[in-house]
Prior knowledge:
Blueprint: H1 2-17, H2 26-29, H3 36-46, H4 56-74, H5 76-79, H6 90-97, H7 108-121, H8 129-137, H9 143-150, H10 172-207, E1 212-213, E2 218-219
Antiparallel strand pairs: 1-2
Helix pairs in contact: 1-4, 7-8
Protein name: RNA transcription, translation and transport factor protein
Pfam families: RLL (PF10036)
Family: Belongs to the RTRAF family.
Amino acid sequence: DETEFRNFIVWLEDQKIRHYKIEDRGNLRNIHSDDWPKSFEKYMKDVNCPFKIQERQETVDWLLGLAVRLEYGDNADKYKDSTPDGAKNTDNTAKNAEPLINLDVNNPDFKAGVMALANLLQIQRHDDYLVMLKVSFTERLTQDAIAKASQSKEGLPVALEKHILGFDTGDAVINEAAQILRLLHIEELRELQTKINEAIVAVQAIIADPKTDHRLGKVGR
């Protein structure tokens, strides 16, 4: 909303940034004026904002960052010894590091998630949802799966820039992640192809060595 945006800019200047003297803030405060965009553009230049007035989101982020920096500078002694609420003591820090400790087992979303997992893995229902969750992660994991997950694979470094992704997400980090996922998928396909080839070889070995029974006049097992 344009009016809320203008009020927000005025509030930041009046309460936090205070770049202008009070008597010089009149044009910026006149939010209903047709010339307000020009006053705002001048204000951005005066505070050395690197963005254009059309870049609203970037401008807001930058001005908020400036306001926070100035607020801290005015009250450095007050804020320098502050600690996050979750890190006031060692116990809280440890609990925050382990999200399952703070798990609310009575939360409807938790119960629904466990039930969906149990149905997917075909696990017998139990009144205690934690019991079902434990079974999901233990009894349904075969020893082969656990052993495979425990194996560490060593491979050769891959130059991602040499692999063409084929599309662009507009974000370099996401593009790189997509390249990695594609390479991992190709590796899984190669493993599958190897297993298929092994199965074909095994079948061919059986077919190529038939048992002959002359009494029955048949060739084969």
